[in-house]
Amino acid sequence: MIGAIELGLLYGVMALGVYLTFRVLKFPDLTVDGSFTTGAAVAAAMITAGQNPLLATLAGGGAGLIAGIVTGLLHTKGKIDGLLAGILTMIALWSVNLRIMGGANVPLLREGTLMTPLRDAQLLGRTWIGVLIFFAAVFVLKLIVDWFLSTDLGLAVQATGNNKQMIGSLGANTDRTTILTLALSNGLVGLCGALVAQYQGFSDISMGIGLILVGLASVILGQAVLGQRFIFLASLAVVVGAVLYRVIIFAALQVGLNPNDMKAITAALVVLALLLPRWGVLKRIPSWRDLRGGQVPAGAETKGA
Q1: Are 73 and 179 in contact (CB under 8 A)?
Q2: What are the tens digits of pLDDT across the range 176-234?
Q3: Which of 63, 169, 212, 280 sits at 20 to 30 Å (Cα–Cα) from 222?
Q4: CA 295 – CA 85 distance, rounded (Å)
Q5: Burial grade of 85 (CB within 10 A; 0-12, 13-18, 19 or more)
Q6: Taking the C-alpha atoms of 255, 260, 261 and 267 in order, what is their torsion angle to the nearest 10 degrees?
Q7: Model's pTM, two decimal places?
Q8: DSSP H helical segments within the chain, as ranges?
Q9: What is the pLDDT of residues 8-31, one digit of tens each?
Q10: What InterPro entries would the database entry show (predicted)?
């Protein structure tokens, strides 16, 4: 269970990236499946080459950022549909990732990584101290995302997602905000890939397949439970959703379900998270706001994607 929570917190970094494109910009970005592996591949290649693990992790995030820029340029300057632009970048990254890793898999078990001090101290997967360390790091990152969305540029990004035509008519450069959001989103995804590779001890060409579904499940599941009334709560919800997703997968494996069925379980979770709020089921369950005595205005809860 502790290992599942730690992994969920790491995937919370990816969920924050998916939140920026899916909820804030309202952009169907499928680059995630490729940029996650790109971040892992860059970090693994640099670590095995003897580079500093922190530098390798940041480089993994930077590689994801570049992938997001490519998708943004294809969509805004090339006038390619957003969905197709993400798919094209994702497919191209498959070959790029193989080039970076020099093969389909790069082991890191005998290399010094960011996780090595925690693993040597026996804090990973065994004690709640490891969970607290991961939570503190992800929470700081979440606060940075909150701060960005509260700046003038962040407000322009939100306005682009809410009504691109209107904000464009007011003179705002929507191409710039779109490219910037895609870059930041995939930068977070690449950073997550670099961290997960070091946590699991390997980088693999297939580790990003279907990850966009995991990200959507985290965002939708978390916001269905906590809501999205404020930026602070909405971003916290996606991190909580990532942890909930991992705990549910852990529970499914514990009761003996076939690991090959995990993708189907993920799809079922997304469908349930989308349908339950519309059926009003979650509104009958006391939320943490209700427990604090707060009132939930009618129609304020999420209505799904």
Answers
A1: yes
A2: 999 999 999 999 999 999 999 999 989 999 888 888 888 888 888 888 777 777 888 88
A3: 63
A4: 42
A5: buried
A6: 130
A7: 0.86
A8: 2-19, 32-48, 53-76, 82-101, 116-120, 128-150, 152-162, 164-169, 174-200, 211-226, 231-254, 262-279, 288-291
A9: 899 999 999 999 998 898 888 889
A10: ABC_transp_permease
Which class for 221: exposed (0-12), middle (13-18), buried (19 or more C-beta within 10 A)?
buried
Rg from Cα positions in the chain = 19
pLDDT digits (tens, 9 = 90+) for 246-275: 888 888 888 777 777 877 877 887 787 777
Q: Are strands 105-107 and 202-204 parallel, antiparallel or unpaired?
A: antiparallel
Residue 288's CB is within 10 A of a number of other CB atoms, namely 11
* Residue of 43, 9, 64, 10 lying closest to 185 (CA atoms): 64
How far is residue 273 from each of residues 214, 245, 266, 280, 281, measured CA to CA in Å?
12, 11, 11, 11, 10
How many residues are there in the chain? 305
Is residue 265 within 8 A of residue 210, CB to CB? The reply is: no
Query: pLDDT class for 93, splitting at 50, 70, 90?
Result: very high
Is the model's pLDDT at 140 over the cut of 60? yes
Look at the block and give the residue holding tokens 């979440």.
142
Contacts (Cβ under 8 Å, ≥6 apart) of 204: 37, 40, 104, 105, 106
Amino acid identity of residue 279, one-letter, is: W
- Give the separation between CA 214 and CA 219, rounded to whole angstroms: 9
